[in-house]
Design goal:
The structure is a single chain. With about 350 residues, the protein is α+β, with helices and mostly antiparallel strands. The protein is built from four helices and 17 strands. The radius of gyration is 20 Å and the shape is globular.
């Protein structure tokens, strides 16, 4: 009896210490945070954004969700791939980005020394691979220990959205979305954000380029709140005559897109239609109507994989879109496909 009580007491003590550590280390981002350039490039003079731009957007799945992976959260069984495959995925991602030579790069799910990616600093790898790009990281997932799944916990996670640009932005801001998981789940889950970079145009005006990664597993209208946040921000930009481009993984399919029954049938993960009314008619959605950009992770990639579209751009009317193309890589390096937008200001 005494031994049982001692063991029970020890377990309770361990749990309380764990919970206290989670509370103390809980990531509490400010509503607005100006980010620092991690590139080390000096930019003493004001730089002007070119009139013609190519922008690459890609959820890289932290280099851990290549075509060999399913994922436990989506109805699969795996938690992480091997270290060797993670590094191979990141190398493939870097090679593909170089192939397109974009002016601006918008990435989602970039890890920084997380356990699920074997403590690899992917931000540093990007900095070394693209030495002539300014680079900014906005965290949206930061936890000292994610305790799921219980048999093989994810452990420490530090991850976020990255914006890279050859032209130095005037300011890059991390905006905390109003969406939030309830406590105590919030201590071990994502705190989503919108990254915006302000650039100077040749005519002296400004343009805003944003990077978003919206909520995926939504049980409390979080995606609605995030879309509304973008709508309110773009209304202010339009009223001030400031053009904008916001790209990312919206985890919602475009309003004009018609999903198949399979896309809505996964009980673990299902996309929803983006509510365009929440954007207030401030711009237009640009996506590739020919190529799917996301695969469901209930199984490894193959003929039975369910594919959908969640990666695209929201563009103000005063920007001319030349092309928008999602690149079909057969989901080799990530569960998402990259998309490249070419525009003229």
């Amino acid at each position: 009896m005494h031994i049982a009580l001692f063991v029970l007491g020890a377990l309770v003590a361990v749990f309380l210490i764990f919970l206290l550590t989670a509370v103390i280390t809980d990531y509490r981002p400010a509503g607005r945070e100006v980010l620092q350039d991690r590139s080390g490039i000096s930019s003493d003079t004001t730089e002007v954004l070119p009139d013609s731009l190519s922008i690459l957007c890609w959820n890289i799945g932290y280099g851990g969700l290549g075509d060999d992976m399913d994922f436990f959260y989506d109805g699969g069984t795996q938690v992480r791939t091997s270290r060797e495959r993670t590094l191979a995925n990141i190398d493939g991602i870097i090679t593909e980005i170089r192939r397109h030579n974009p002016d601006i790069i918008l990435l989602q799910e970039v890890d920084e020394c997380s356990r699920r990616t074997y403590r690899i600093n992917e931000v540093e790898m990007l900095r070394e691979a693209f030495p002539d790009y300014h680079i900014f990281l906005g965290y949206n997932y930061k936890s000292f220990f994610v305790p799921i799944p219980l048999k093989a916990p994810m452990g420490k996670v530090a991850s976020g959205v990255v914006l890279m640009s050859r032209t130095a932005p005037e300011e890059v801001v991390r905006w905390q979305y109003p969406s939030r998981f309830p406590w105590p789940v919030s201590m071990f889950n994502l705190k989503r954000c919108l990254l915006t970079a302000s650039f100077r145009k040749a005519d002296g005006g400004s343009i805003i380029i944003g990077n978003t990664h919206n909520t995926a597993y939504d049980t409390g209208n979080m995606r609605t709140a995030e879309t509304g946040f973008i709508g309110e921000m773009t209304k202010k930009l339009r009223s001030g005559g400031i053009p904008f481009i916001i790209g990312g993984d919206w985890n919602q399919y475009p309003p004009a897109y018609t999903p198949s029954p399979d896309e809505d049938s996964n009980p673990h993960f299902s996309t929803v239609r983006l509510d365009e009314d929440l954007l207030g008619g401030t711009g237009r959605i640009i996506y590739d109507r020919q190529t799917k950009t996301l695969r469901h992770l209930n199984t490894v990639f193959g003929p039975e994989s369910v594919l959908t579209v969640t990666d695209y751009f929201y563009v103000s009317p005063d920007i001319r879109v030349d092309t928008m193309q999602a690149i079909d890589l057969r989901f080799r390096y990530s569960d998402h496909q990259p998309a490249v937008l070419r525009i003229k200001l």
